[in-house]
Design a protein that fits this description.
The complex is a heterotrimer of chains A (about 280), B (about 425) and C (about 290).
Chain A lengths: L5 H30 L2 H4 L14 H7 L6 H36 L4 H9 L6 H14 L5 H24 L5 H8 L4 H30 L2 H6 L8 H9 L6 H21 L1 H14 L1
Chain B lengths: L1 H23 L2 E8 L6 H14 L3 E8 L1 H10 L9 E5 L3 H6 L12 H6 L2 H4 L3 E2 L2 E2 L2 E4 L4 E5 H6 L9 H13 L7 E2 L6 H13 L5 E2 L2 E2 L4 H15 L12 H9 L5 E4 L3 H5 L11 E7 L7 E2 L5 E5 L6 H11 L2 H6 L15 H4 L3 H12 L10 H16 L5 H11 L4
Parallel strand pairs in B: 1-2, 1-3, 8-11
Antiparallel strand pairs in B: 3-14, 4-5, 6-14, 7-11, 7-12, 9-10, 12-13
Helix pairs in contact in B: 9-10, 9-17, 17-18
Chain C lengths: L1 H34 L17 H8 L1 H32 L6 H7 L1 H5 L2 H11 L6 H8 L13 H29 L3 H9 L4 H29 L3 H6 L11 H11 L3 H33 L1
Helix pairs in contact in C: 2-13, 3-8, 3-10, 6-8, 8-10, 10-13, 12-13
Classes of the chains: A mainly alpha (about 280), B alpha+beta (about 425), C mainly alpha (about 290).
Chain lengths: ~280, ~425, ~290
């Protein structure tokens, strides 16, 4: 680190404070809206701090009484968990062997390249046939169908991340295992997986977050509580027909909690994943 | 020992669960509604719970989407066998839905009692080409709401009966400094803007389509947009109207930031409720004004119906539900946010009490309801018109040019 | 012999991935190409072959041309700002200051916030009557009356870009930070003792380490920005006067709202082609640039 003059140090601290405020202010405001009364939120000039903290909207959205708004919201929360978990697990199950193979055999790298290139495809380019396929298979408006569709996003992404993670693991170990007569699956399971645990964890988080974030396919392919995910539920609330801004904010807070929690908890894994993928390309 | 007891009780629980599950053998119905405007979500949930109590073997799963998602959700769920059984639809969609057989033709299920008891205007909502595609449920039009206190303060005796008078009154209120922007509308790029525009088109005696061709770039339809642009530019209209939907209009009006507002029935009792609103008790309502020499009042047909989807596996249960939801009793019980479709309800004191003003406005407004065009290409035409209206408001082009471009863009040959 | 067996093994390992990819990407893509030459409707009967009609109709329509330039505008401005601000914040994080680890952790927050929640949040913030943006700017004396941020074409686009920027600059900052930390200290020290000024130091010593990772960030963000749907759908739905209607929204309307699956498919393919061209150009430019500095 270079020697810093006093003025420079003050400047750096000021800028850091500014960045922190820019990041935190909207998030804080989301939370404040969720606990402010409607009167505070429609006051002019606006009340930036509520007179009383009112947590009742959380109860309203999480209540499970029959035919309530809460029931619908909780259902979509569970759908999101279901879809994201299924899609993530399948993506990893197929991504680990493929990523390993591509990492060890540059000759098949092109096929992985082709898979990664599908990232350029906009979802709208696949949406019409996917809609028709799901309709024919009776998978529209099911969590399974949606999870399957999510593979089109998760699988290329996690395979790419996994390959980058396998690359630095030395080959000598596999050679030794092969000489000892280990089968392919044994080598993968006993030798590689334990060493690759960090990158697998990173891929898992990324895939889950990607699936949790998805909106377009969910909007098209789900129609009710059976499969509707949280992102669509929030978009429905935010559509401009609900005048209770606090309720919209509450739904936002609840939907943001799981990914933000995971993000903060797994900070290190995420950052290393981001930068590994980024630096190595 | 303990583990044995646990196991036994677990098995018992599981058994009870299975038995009770089998005994119910419910029919599950999925119903699609919209969130807000007209009946509230709470009202619809309450009505449905009552229906379920009366029909314990039927369970209704309610789905609420914003109005903007209603059409696309209905169409998209067509591909899914288990999409919706009952859908709410706007008066403008039966043409398209009929063409794509989205809804079941229920003409033979409509009884004579229904035919004679329900207002003729309501029936136009669900019929296309001589067939009935469901039951009317929400009978609605846009009314002119006004803040009585503000009008009195500005020395205005009675609510305006022509659009020119509205403009003059708004000017008085603005000049008196009572409120900065007297009029609030819902002119966001959405169907809401078309409803306000159609109200004006009906006042000016304009046409949307003549001989299958768009005809809104001339005559009364052009005058209507001219009025909107003039009102916007003169500062009488809240400039934020161009991103307002109905709920924004209600918020502004009940916050005391507007003297006049064009909105649906539901706003009357909500804005008049002192618990919800700062202007409670001061809300007046009349039928939307007319234009001297052309019309006495103006109104858009903003009604909506309930229909059975052609993919429903339980059309009979779905029909029972629709009949219940549209029955006079239910409609009278929940007549605070949406007025009944039944003619005799309008003289029933249980319905009219406490909202005589609204009923009086409804008698005039409902009779004057003007349709938006019936065309299978409605969605496309509407979007082109929304763009045209906003371009004119934003001064990106003249009203005439904007409407001509919209006509070209409308998908109508 | 051994090599043959090994090749077999490799393909065996790749097989599940390839199968899934063919099912959820390959086949639908081919079907989209087929559909784009027909007038198929979304629900109902199979359409007929109409040749290039969909493509010529789409390319010559005013709606497409407008949406294309809107999309380009959104992409160029948002990606440029994200990269510039991201790199600046990355450089900031590479300095010594109190709370550095906390700030770095904070950068995860906007990134982890679901896009839909982000869009909803900003829509509330920009509300013309009761939004926090107007209230805050008025309090600070930056504006003298409330503005309709999402109601005017120019400000609506900037408001969308700001919301997108807030969510996405942290990712760039983290990538930039990691790249900066990979600059060996002795090289940096050498440059300082050579008397190179700050700009030259950045250009010749630090930038070469940044270019590679940033290239990836630029390409990824460009692709994502070009595909943008969620944030616009929720904040403006393409309004006002369709001034924020991007290509993805146009395809949605064509294929799903108007149910013209055929022309919707052709439009989707046109977008795909545009993204591919954009990505290739970017990679070329960045490569030649990186080659020049090393």
């Amino acid at each position: 680190m270079e020697h810093q003059s006093r003025a420079f140090s003050i400047f750096v601290h000021a800028m850091a404070l500014l960045v922190a405020m820019v990041i935190l202010a909207p998030l804080l405001w989301l939370f404040i809206m969720s606990v402010s009364s409607n009167a505070d939120l429609s006051a002019k000039p606006l009340h930036f701090w509520p007179e009383v903290f009112d947590f009742s909207r959380y109860g309203q959205l999480l209540s499970r009484s029959n035919n309530s708004m809460g029931e619908a919201f909780v259902a979509s929360l569970f759908n999101s968990i279901k879809v994201a978990s299924m899609a993530t697990l399948i993506a990893l199950a197929i991504g680990i062997p493929a990523g390993w193979a591509a990492s060890r055999n540059p000759r098949v790298g092109w096929s992985l390249g082709a898979v990664v290139a599908t990232y350029m495809l906009p979802p709208v380019a696949l949406s019409v046939p996917l809609y028709m396929i799901l309709a024919k298979a009776g998978l529209l408006n099911t969590t399974w169908g949606l999870a399957l569709v999510y593979l089109s996003i998760l699988a290329p992404f996690s395979t790419w991340l996994l390959k980058a993670g396998f690359d630095p693991i030395p080959r000598d170990l596999e050679m030794a295992a092969a000489i000892d007569g280990a089968r392919l699956d044994q080598t993968l399971r006993i030798v590689i997986l334990p060493l690759a645990m960090p990158v697998i964890a990173t891929s898992l988080i990324f895939a889950f977050l990607l699936a949790w974030d998805e909106f377009f396919y969910a909007l098209l392919f789900t129609s009710n509580q059976q499969a509707k995910t949280l992102t669509v539920a929030i978009a429905d609330l935010a559509g401009g027909r609900v005048s209770d801004y606090g309720l919209i904010a509450t739904a936002g807070v609840l939907a943001a909690l799981p990914p933000v929690f995971v993000g903060v908890l797994m900070q290190r894994a995420l950052i290393s994943g981001l930068t590994n993928g980024g630096v190595k390309g | 020992m303990r583990s044995k007891i646990t196991a036994v009780s677990l098995a018992a629980t599981a058994l009870t669960f299975m038995v009770s599950g089998a005994a119910l053998a419910e029919t599950q119905l999925n119903a699609l509604f919209m969130a807000q405007a007209a009946y509230s979500e709470d009202d619809i949930r309450a009505m449905t719970t009552e229906f379920e109590k009366a029909n314990p073997d039927v369970k209704i799963n309610l789905e609420f989407v914003p109005y903007e998602g209603l059409h696309d959700k209905t169409v998209l769920s067509q591909g899914a066998g288990g999409g919706y059984d009952v859908v709410l639809y706007d008066v403008i969609w039966p043409a398209e839905y009929a063409q794509n057989s989205v809804l079941v033709d229920v003409s033979d299920k409509i009884t004579d009692e229904m035919k004679s008891g329900i207002l003729p205007g309501a029936w136009t909502t669900v019929s296309y080409d001589g067939k009935y595609y469901g039951m009317p449920w929400i009978l609605d039009t846009k009314y002119l709401f006004y803040n009585k206190e503000m009008l009195k303060k500005a020395g205005i005796e009675k609510a305006p009966t022509t659009w020119a008078e509205l403009k003059a009154d708004a000017q008085k209120i603005k000049d008196a400094g009572i409120v900065e922007y007297p009029i609030a509308w819902s002119w966001a790029q959405a169907e809401a803007a078309i409803c306000d525009y159609t109200t004006l088109v009906s006042a000016y005696g304009g046409d949307f389509i003549k001989d299958g061709k768009p005809a809104f770039a001339e005559g009364g339809a052009l005058d209507a947009l001219d009025y909107m642009v003039d009102s916007y530019k003169s500062g009488l209209t809240n400039p934020n109207s161009k991103e307002f939907l109905e709920e924004d209009v209600r918020n502004v009006f009940q916050n005391g930031d507007a003297a006049f507002a064009l909105n649906w029935t539901y706003m009357y009792n909500l804005a008049n409720d002192p618990k919800e609103s700062k202007v409670g008790g001061n809300v007046g309502v009349v039928a939307a004004p007319g234009v001297e020499g052309i019309s006495e009042e103006s109104a858009v047909n903003g009604s909506m119906g309930l229909g059975i989807t052609s993919t429903s596996e339980h059309p009979d249960e779905a029909w029972d539900y629709i009949v219940y939801m549209t029955s006079q009793k239910v409609q009278n019980d929940y007549a605070r946010l949406s007025l009944p479709i039944w003619a005799s309800s309008y003289t029933d004191p249980a319905v009219t009490e406490g909202q005589e003003e609204l009923i009086a406005a409804a008698e005039k407004g409902l009779a004057a309801m003007y349709p938006r065009p019936l065309t299978p290409h409605y969605q496309e035409m509407s979007l082109a018109l929304q763009q045209g209206i906003q371009e004119a408001l934003l001064d990106m082009s003249s009203p005439k040019d904007a409407l001509e471009a919209a006509a070209e863009n409308s998908g109508l040959e | 012999m051994l090599s043959d067996r090994k090749t077999l093994h490799v393909w065996l390992l790749m097989l599940p991935l390839l199968c899934v990819m063919i099912a959820v990407i390959g086949w639908p893509l081919i079907d989209t190409i087929r559909l784009s030459f027909t007038n198929t409707r979304l629900v109902g009967s199979e359409g007929e072959f109409v040749g290039l009609h969909n493509f010529t109709k789409m390319l010559s329509s005013r709606n497409f041309q407008r949406a294309f330039s809107t999309t380009m505008q959104f992409t160029l401005i948002s990606v440029t700002l994200e990269i510039v601000i991201g790199v600046l914040v990355g450089m900031l994080l590479n300095q010594k200051f109190y709370g550095r680890t906390i700030l770095r952790g904070m950068l995860i927050l906007p990134w982890a916030l679901p896009t839909v929640v982000n869009a909803t949040l900003w829509r509330l913030i920009y509300n013309p009557e009761y939004g926090a943006f107007n209230a805050a700017l008025l309090k600070l004396g930056i504006i003298d009356q409330y503005q309709s941020w999402l109601g005017q074409p120019q400000t609506a686009m900037m408001a969308l870009i700001l919301a997108d920027l807030w969510k996405n600059f942290p990712l760039v900052a983290l990538i930039a930070l990691a790249a900066l930390q990979s600059v060996p200290n002795d090289i940096r020290a050498a440059a300082i003792s050579d008397g190179a000024n700050a700009f030259r130091r950045f250009r010749y010593v630090i930038l070469p380490y940044l270019v590679g990772p940033l290239m990836v960030a630029v390409v990824l963000r460009t692709i994502e920005a070009f595909k943008v749907f969620d944030i616009i759908w929720i904040m403006t739905r393409g309004g006002p006067a369709n001034s924020t209607r991007t290509l993805s929204i146009l395809v949605y309307q064509e294929a799903f709202a108007f149910q013209r699956a055929g022309s919707g498919a052709s439009l989707a393919l046109i977008i795909t082609l545009a993204i591919t061209v954009l990505a290739v150009i970017y990679i070329r430019i960045m490569r030649s640039w990186a080659g020049g500095t090393n």
